[in-house]
Amino acid sequence: MNNAYRSPSGLYKTGKTLFISGTGGKDGSLEKDIKDDLLLLPTRNAKHTEKYKDVIEELKKSPEVTRLVWHSLAPAVINKINEEQPSKFATTTYATPSIKKGRKGKQDPRRLDFRNPNDVVSMLDGYAETSNFVDWNPIIAHT
């Protein structure tokens, strides 16, 4: 994930895996990404975000990608891609703001979700496996 956050595009590909950063500006600018997060994601318009367009472009150039790994707000983009191509990608999420009821049974190995305790961003994701990493600082807990 660190490589994705350091990348000008917010994306990092290695082998068959594409890592996608959460809120983090493309080419160092947060303005467009934050506007997309606040205006487009709550209205289920992830398809119109810059991040969605960047991911789709990368996937067109990289047909070998079979796993998508994301953090924080990027899941809205990946959920849209999974709607369009439901069985193409295995996914792993970290610290997402998804609102999901508690898990019944084990995680699907193709759809893994993880969170840390005290992470207020992911606190409503009842499906995510909660790690044993505990930090009182919610910002650190989110990372």
Please render the helix and strand layout as text.
Elements: H1 2-6, E1 11-14, E2 17-20, H2 31-40, H3 50-61, E3 67-71, H4 75-84, E4 90-94, E5 111-115, E6 129-130, H5 138-142
Parallel strand pairs: 2-3, 3-4, 4-5, 5-6
Antiparallel strand pairs: 1-2
Q: What is the rounded distance between the termini?
A: 10 Å
Task: Assign a percent range to the helix content.
Answer: 25-40%
Number of helices: 5
For the largest beta sheet, what order do the strands appear in spatially?
A: 1-2-3-4-5-6
- Based on secondary structure, the structural category is alpha/beta
Rg, alpha carbons: 15 Å
Whole-number tally of structural domains: 1
The total beta strand count reads: 6
Main β-sheet description: 6 strands, mixed
Give a verbal description of the structure.
The structure is a single chain. This protein has helices spanning 2-6, 31-40, 50-61, 75-84, 138-142, and strands at residues 11-14, 17-20, 67-71, 90-94, 111-115, 129-130. With 143 residues, the protein is α/β, with parallel strands linked by helices. It has a six-stranded mixed β-sheet. Strand 1 and strand 2 (17-20) form a beta hairpin. It is globular, with a radius of gyration of 15 Å. The model has no long low-confidence stretch (mean pLDDT 75).
Quick take:
With about 140 residues, the chain is of the alpha/beta class. Helix content is about 30%, strand content about 15%.
